[in-house]
Design goal:
The complex is a heterodimer of chains A (486) and B (445).
Chain A: H1 3-30, H2 34-57, H3 69-92, H4 98-109, H5 125-140, H6 142-149, H7 156-164, H8 177-201, H9 206-217, H10 235-248, H11 252-260, H12 264-268, H13 271-294, H14 299-314, H15 329-339, H16 354-372, E1 376-377, E2 381-382, E3 385-386, H17 389-417, H18 420-431, H19 452-466, H20 470-474
Antiparallel strand pairs in A: 2-3
Helix pairs in contact in A: 1-2, 1-3, 1-5, 2-3, 3-4, 3-7, 4-5, 4-19, 5-9, 6-8, 8-9, 8-10, 8-11, 10-14, 13-14, 13-15, 14-15, 17-18, 17-19, 18-19
Chain B: E1 2-6, H1 10-19, E2 24-29, E3 44-47, H2 53-58, E4 66-69, H3 74-87, E5 91-95, H4 99-105, H5 108-112, E6 121-123, H6 125-137, E7 144-148, E8 153-159, E9 180-187, E10 190-192, E11 205-211, H7 212-222, E12 231-235, H8 239-249, E13 254-259, H9 262-271, E14 276-279, H10 285-290, E15 298-301, H11 306-318, E16 324-327, H12 334-339, E17 344-346, H13 348-360, E18 365-371, E19 376-382, E20 390-391, E21 401-408, E22 411-413, E23 420-421, E24 426-432, H14 436-443
Parallel strand pairs in B: 1-2, 1-4, 2-3, 4-5, 5-6, 12-13, 12-15, 13-14, 15-16, 16-17
Antiparallel strand pairs in B: 7-8, 8-11, 9-10, 9-11, 18-19, 19-24, 20-23, 21-22, 21-24
């Protein structure tokens, strides 16, 4: 690994990020919140300064064509850690503790949606706008954004593009990676604008429509309203957000093919997407059954809440149309199960991903079939194509790591907090980038009162979950850290 | 007709031996590969390459009406067909044994852009065999099935099993539905054309020809028709096994396929959607039992090894298989396979031969199907304008034959003795192979 090369790449990203920070500053200016303007300008200056420093340190390395895989992984990890840190700076100006500010920022960029705020009335509009914007930027992936807008990366873009979201398939929709990144951001932007329009038409205030749309498409879950979507008391709004959560949890590459290129079959013929729809339908019905029978809700309310909540947790958005922490245990169990699945590969959702769940299901079925037919040759197929052995191994080991990490983190937090619900539900909610857990950290609760150690563990969980473990695990290999000064 | 055959494979021998008495045949062969049996044929034999213009000019290939390329090498066949097109506009038939090449030359896009220099017809024997097997097993209980007149009429072959109402009754006394005829019976391996007083015996294999609806009634009355073929076992995952499984998958059948080679198994499992691919030997009794291969509605042995196919079929029969279809490579083994009680014996060569004969026959005569490995034939011929109107019972045929179907305009008739024959009628005639020429002569006097 060449440190100057990595610094050089990071420098470019920080300079661009400094530019992005001017956006909330401008917003604050329009809203006449001059104190907030200062906060964002300071953060922007910090980003520029750090960016120039990195560029100066790596001044000899302007060509990234020789970027290695490990370099790519480190650049991606550093980008997420550093960008979240700079994104946390504005929060300091509003009296947040530095650890809380970093927690909130990481929760934003990783689209988790877990918050440490308790009283929403203390903060100006620009504060909430920035919170939502961090999620929107993180939703499609910061790296994907920079590969799309910065021409400097060139060939190396491919390396870091796939390091950020190492899904089981390399799904490129155009031959060149920069074009793919642009196409993905295009569909992302279009859907967001469409949602803002629909929400405004449905009667939501314009500012709230913007913030909620930014976080819906990112599968994030921050809402400027302290009671999340439940606070708007508007059925139409709830259904519109359900629809866009559904889209946010589906692969954007496929949506690009479907909506922009007009190949409807690309989306509905996809095995993962159909399985995704099946999960939503079946579990919504289950949840509906419990809500309708045990919570004594009306028919339409039960239907609305069950569909909304399944989508919200499955796609790892984390909005709430009702306080599910108060529901009966069977209903909570269904919600908890959803936390482990996550969105489709190539979507804004986090978690294990639908395609891996589908694969594991087929993998287990094969083991059973093989018992009955010892001599049969049984390949595992996804979408009619056989999954290669090395990819099979990757997916199984991913799942294993995910579980190991969850148990480890869950147990540690349980010991710190003396509460297994916070330990395991909190871990599942942060590592899966879902957001709210159960009990005190439920949808109407807050992560603010937790022990600082717990917060640090959750911050790591969120980052690791968003980057799908691979860059994190690579760092445990000693050879990863062999720097080459020349 | 002047026919030029390139290559000295078993296939070219079959074609030549079938046609050498009526047509002038020249066999072109590469140096040193001529088998002894070709000496018994009344043909001209020339040594040389099919792709050599000088040789083709020397043997006056320009005068030939049909060129059949059936050497062992696919590529040589293709080149030979192209070469002869340079000399003359001869019709060419090219034999191919590889799937990739077959697809190159025989697809709808290829037909659309057919130019003068293209090969006229491509024959891939294994593909034809697959179609034949598929047709045979798509009808439950029947041993053999042929479609005539676009499916409006059919030819079925059934084995008369114990308990059947037909045993020991003469054909006249059997209560068949209307529009059904019995044109042929195979008894102890011998095919013959029965008359009204012939008695049907146990274990006879009886052919029925008739309208589709009538045959369905017949099947319902005399054979257990309600059992649909639901499960199929295939031994051997070569081209035939693979294509057959692919075709059967589309009709929602439960398929088990046994293949020996690990590599081929992986290919099959990757390419087929629902088929259960088993790696193992088709003669491994333990495997056959543990996977209950023989309980399938139909078992098909289609390895490229006759000995293995035979052993496999016998094992299955012992395990109680209801219906066995077996591929035979060497036509000489055909009789033996039939004799030991295999229900249907099929051969890629027989399938290909039918196809070639269709091209060769003159004067509106086609061979629609070869029966019992070529012992009988279904001929299709159109009566000439000069033909005098006559009732069938007054027709003094020079040999034993049964007129199975008359197609007049759009009408499909199954005739009895009183039916009239008119000029321009299209007839489907069931005839023994040795009488086939006599019948043709009779109608085209």
């Amino acid at each position: 690994m060449k440190l100057p090369l990595i610094a050089s790449a990071l420098g470019i990203i920080l300079l661009a990020f400094g530019g992005i920070l001017l956006l909330p500053a401008a917003f604050a200016g329009i809203e006449n919140e001059y104190f907030a303007v200062i906060a964002f300008i300071v953060a922007s200056i910090c980003s520029f300064a750090l960016g120039f420093l990195c560029r100066w340190y790596g001044r000899l390395y302007r060509n990234f064509d020789l970027l290695k895989r490990t370099d790519g992984l480190l650049i991606v990890t550093l980008t997420w850690v550093v960008v979240a840190a700079i994104g946390a700076l504005p929060y300091l100006f509003f009296g947040l503790h530095p650890l809380d500010a970093y927690f909130e920022s990481v929760s934003g960029f990783t689209t988790t949606g877990a918050t440490i705020l308790t009283d929403f009335s203390l903060y100006p509009k620009a504060f909430f706008f920035w919170r939502s914007l961090t999620q929107w930027l993180g939703g499609m992936g910061i790296i994907v954004l920079f590969v799309a807008i910065l021409p400097q990366f060139g060939v190396a873009g491919r390396q870091i593009f796939f390091a950020e979201a190492p899904g089981p398939s390399e799904d490129k929709i155009t031959p060149r990676i920069a074009h793919t990144a642009k196409a993905l951001w295009l569909i992302y932007l279009l859907l967001t604008v469409l949602e803002i329009l629909l929400l405004t038409l449905a009667g939501m205030p314009f500012f709230d429509a913007i913030c909620n749309s930014l976080t819906t498409m990112a599968a994030g879950g921050f809402s400027p309203h302290p009671q999340s979507i439940m606070g708007y008391q508007n059925n139409t709004v709830t259904w519109i957000i359900s629809l866009f959560m559904l889209l946010a949890g589906a692969s954007f590459a496929l949506q690009y093919k479907c909506f922009i290129k007009g190949k409807v079959k690309a989306l509905f013929g996809n095995e993962e997407f159909r399985f995704y729809l099946t999960i939503i339908t079946i579990f919504s019905l289950f949840l509906f059954y419990f809500l309708f029978n045990t919570q004594a809700n009306t028919f339409s309310d039960s239907l609305r809440d069950s569909v909304f909540q399944i989508l919200s947790i499955l796609t790892t958005t984390g909005f709430s149309s009702a306080d599910f922490a108060l529901w009966a245990v069977p209903a909570q169990a269904i919600i908890f199960a959803m936390m482990f699945i996550g969105g489709c590969a190539g979507s804004a959702g986090g978690g294990i991903k639908v395609v891996r769940i589908l694969f594991v299901g087929k993998f287990l079925k094969r083991e059973i079939d093989q018992l009955v037919h010892p001599k049969a040759i049984l390949p595992i197929k996804l979408g009619g194509v056989t999954v290669q052995d090395d990819i099979q191994r990757q997916m199984i080991s991913f799942l294993l790591f995910y579980i190991v990490l969850m148990i480890f983190s869950g147990l540690t937090v349980t010991m710190i907090e003396h509460d297994a619900a916070i330990g395991f539900a909190g871990t599942a909610a942060t590592i899966g980038n879902v957001g709210p857990g159960f009990g005190a950290i439920g949808p109407m609760g807050s992560f603010g009162f937790l022990h600082p150690l717990t917060k640090i563990i959750f911050i790591i969980d969120m980052l690791v979950g968003r980057l799908e473990l691979i860059p994190f695990l690579a760092m445990f290999c000693p050879d990863f850290w062999s720097f080459n000064k020349n | 007709m002047e026919i030029l055959i390139y290559g000295t494979t078993e296939m070219s021998y079959l074609v030549a031996s079938r046609l050498h008495q009526q047509h002038n045949i020249t066999i072109l062969h590469e140096p040193g590969e001529l088998g002894e049996k070709f000496g018994n044929l009344d043909v001209r034999i020339v040594e040389g390459s099919g792709g050599d213009l000088a040789v083709l000019e020397h043997i006056e290939a320009k005068k030939s009406d049909l060129f059949i390329a059936c050497s062992l090498l696919d590529e040589a066949n293709i080149v030979a067909c192209w070469t002869i097109k340079k000399i003359a506009d001869t019709e060419t038939i090219c034999f191919i044994n590889k799937a990739s090449l077959y697809k190159n030359f025989s697809s709808s896009t290829h037909d659309r852009y057919h130019v003068k220099y293209d090969i006229d017809s491509i024959i891939w024997p294994e593909k034809l065999l697959t179609q034949d097997i598929f047709r045979i097993i798509s009808v439950p209980e029947a041993l053999d099935v042929e479609y005539l007149a676009g499916g409006k009429a059919k030819l079925f072959e059934y084995r008369i099993k114990e308990g059947s109402a037909m045993i020991d009754t003469s054909i006249m006394d059997c209560k068949f539905p209307k529009n059904v005829l019995i044109p042929g019976i195979t008894r102890e391996g011998k095919l013959f054309i029965p008359n009204g007083s012939t008695t049907i015996l146990l274990d006879d294999k009886v052919f029925f020809i008739g309208l589709s609806t009538a045959l369905d009634t017949l099947a319902a009355d005399f054979f257990k028709h309600d059992k649909k073929v639901k499960s199929v076992s295939i031994i051997g995952g070569g081209s035939v096994g693979f294509m057959l499984a692919e075709k059967l998958e589309r009709t929602d059948k439960k398929i088990k396929l046994i293949e020996q080679s690990q590599e081929r198994c992986e290919f099959l499992a990757n390419s087929l959607k629902k088929t259960l691919v088993l790696q193992g030997n088709g003669t491994d009794l333990e495997l056959l039992q543990s996977e209950s291969i023989a309980t399938a509605d139909v078992c098909i042995c289609t390895t490229d090894n006759d000995e293995k196919n035979l052993l496999c079929s016998l094992l299955m029969k012992q395990l109680g298989s209801k219906r066995i279809v077996t591929r035979v490579g060497n036509i000489q083994n055909y009789q033996l396979f039939e004799h030991v009680g295999i229900d249907v014996v099929v051969s890629p060569k027989a399938s290909a031969l039918t196809e070639v004969l269709n091209r060769v026959q003159v004067q509106d005569v086609d061979v629609l199907a070869l029966i019992e490995g070529g012992k009988g034939e279904v001929l299709r011929l159109t009566l000439p304008d000069t033909f005098k109107e006559i009732q069938i019972k007054d027709l003094k045929l020079s040999a034993n034959a049964i007129i199975g179907v008359i197609i007049r305009g759009k009408e499909v008739l199954i005739p009895n003795g009183l039916a009239l024959l008119l000029p321009q009628d299209l007839l489907k005639i069931f005839v023994m192979k040795e009488d086939s020429d006599k019948i043709k002569e009779f109608f085209f006097r």
